[in-house]
Specification:
Oligomer: single chain
Helix content: 10-25%
Distance between the termini: 16 Å
Strand content: 25-35%
Number of strands: 20
Structural class: alpha+beta
Strand order of the largest sheet: 6-7-8-3-9-10
Length: 358
């Protein structure tokens, strides 16, 4: 496993990227930002496609300045699989080891091992034209890792996939990255990619790092406009359980598991603030998760009012930052203001539980 240290400035036309980022050995870091924030320039600098004006990129103690792309020990997985159309899936995966000097037999054995890792052994003899989008991306994952890179770069790896295929490929990539322990940096627009895959988030804006920290912390307490915008979901960290998710204080948040999770696995429960109901007293009736909160803030949110939760006296700390979007009429009927204690409630059918970064 390799530690990545980046402190560079890269100018492209009138745009300048000036960032300092460290990715610990074996860590997965997601880079987010709006269009034009500098994500592609950052990734290009790491891959050797853009030469820095100043600074250094160090990987496992090696300075990468001036090192040719094919000698950087950096793997890249992009939006498109970009497989060689004239080669079979096995030969596509074997291409990297062959380029590094491995013999034909050794390269094919490596390819078969990685095809098995991504559950694609049955696809070994197919050419790219015979593969679906999800199958092709599985082969691309195997090809990116078959060279045993010290750094894996993920450039919107699920953007081109059908929505029904994405969860399975995302889950596969998470499993493979964790199993190999490869240091990984991912550029994405999808907050769920970051939640499922990343240990930490780095938010770029106008070529600068404006926010950085553990994934759950950044999403629950955003400090930049972009992070606040993408953190449009309520997030509760905990451990997977048969009913949904169990928090550190033992509260069970009922929810569905779109992906397979082991009992006790680190996970997060996600739900929309619009799915949260607010009550003056503990609600009765249909099964739902209910927690006491102290209103920390009330703010306009389009045609709704966003009620932001703080921790009540003796209450669970994980409720801080949770939001409920309600109508102005509901606020008037509740007669609440900041400082009041109320109850937030959400039905299990509105909650999805996903695996979380470490």
């Amino acid at each position: 496993m390799s530690r990545l240290e980046v402190d560079v400035a890269v100018t492209r036309g009138s745009f300048t990227l000036d960032v300092s980022v460290t990715v610990g050995s074996g860590e997965v870091v997601a880079v987010l930002g709006s269009n034009g924030a500098g994500k592609s320039t950052f990734l290009g600098a790491l891959a050797g496609l853009h030469a820095p004006d100043r600074g250094a990129i160090t990987l496992d103690g090696r300075e990468l300045g001036g090192v040719p792309v094919h000698r950087r020990r950096v793997g890249l997985l992009s939006q498109q699989a970009l497989l060689f159309p004239h080669l079979t899936a096995r030969d596509n995966v074997a291409f990297g080891p062959r380029s590094s000097g491995a013999g034909r037999r050794a390269a094919r054995e490596t390819a078969d091992r990685w095809l098995a890792m991504v559950d694609a052994t049955a696809l070994a003899d197919r050419r790219p034209a015979e593969l679906s989008g999800g199958q092709a991306q599985r082969i691309a994952i195997a090809r990116a890792l078959a060279c045993e890179p010290e750094l894996l770069l993920l450039d919107e790896p699920f953007a081109a996939l059908d929505v029904d295929v994405t969860p399975a490929v995302r889950s596969l990539l998470r499993r493979v990255v964790r199993a190999t322990g490869v240091t990984t940096l991912m550029v994405t627009h999808d907050v769920l990619d970051a939640v499922v895959l990343a240990d930490r988030l780095v938010v770029l804006d106008a070529g600068r790092v404006v926010e950085s920290g553990p994934t759950a912390e950044v999403l629950r307490r955003p400090r930049s406009a972009f992070a606040a915008r993408i953190a449009g979901l309520d997030l509760v960290p905990g451990r997977s359980c048969p009913e949904g998710l169990r928090t550190t204080d033992g509260t069970v948040v009922g929810g569905m598991h779109p992906e397979t999770l082991d009992d006790g696995e680190a996970a997060v429960a996600l739900f929309a603030p619009a799915a949260v109901s607010v009550f003056r007293e503990p609600p009765k009736g249909s099964p739902r998760t209910t927690v006491p909160v102290r209103l920390a803030a009330m703010e306009p949110h389009g045609e709704l009012v966003r009620l932001r939760a703080g921790v009540p006296d003796g209450g669970p700390g994980w409720v801080e930052g949770l939001a409920a979007d309600v109508t102005p009429a509901a606020v008037a009927q509740l007669g609440v203001e900041p400082g009041d204690e109320v109850w937030f409630a959400v039905k299990a059918a509105e909650v999805e539980v996903h695996p979380a970064g470490r």
